[in-house]
Amino acid sequence: MPGMENEGSNLSRAEEIKNQANEEFKAHKYGQAINLYTQAIELNSQNAVYWANRSLAHTKLEEYGSAIQDATKAIEVDPKYSKEKPTTLDCGPRTICRRHIMASSYLYKCMWEALQQRIRMILINMQLTSYVL
């Protein structure tokens, strides 16, 4: 059956690509690893490992939204995966959430400081204007 041979070929090729992606990941070439994991996913989207590995690569590039999406997809594809591989999917989202909270807090602090500075400038301008009138 030609369809089954093609499917087997795709699964085999996806594994080869995943192995290449793993090498890129180990070499800290996370963008290239993501591209390769994406190719593997295109050949076999039902392999939770590909999604989880790509999630981890996104995390290394601080692309947290994409990392969460891929980790979620890995669990959708194989609900047992999160229990079998807690180091990949459990630590990743926790780290992502922690970094997101830290980034949000920092952004809020910067915005608050900028707002306070702007209010001070407005008050100073109001005081100067009252003397001019």
TrEMBL record:
Record's SUPFAM superfamilies?
TPR-like (SSF48452)
Spans of TPR repeats, please give. 14-47, 48-81
List GO molecular-function terms, semicolon-separated. Answer: molecular adaptor activity
Q: Would you tell me the protein name for this molecule?
A: Uncharacterized protein
What processes does the entry annotate via GO biological process terms? post-translational protein targeting to endoplasmic reticulum membrane
**Which Gene3D superfamilies does the entry link to?**
Tetratricopeptide repeat domain
Its GO CC terms are: membrane; TRC complex
Q: Which InterPro entries match?
A: SGT, TPR-like_helical_dom_sf, TPR_rpt
What Pfam families has UniProt attached to this entry? TPR_8 (PF13181)
Could you tell me the keywords of this UniProt record? Repeat, TPR repeat
Q: Where are the transmembrane segments?
A: none
Origin species, per record, is Gossypium darwinii (Darwin's cotton)
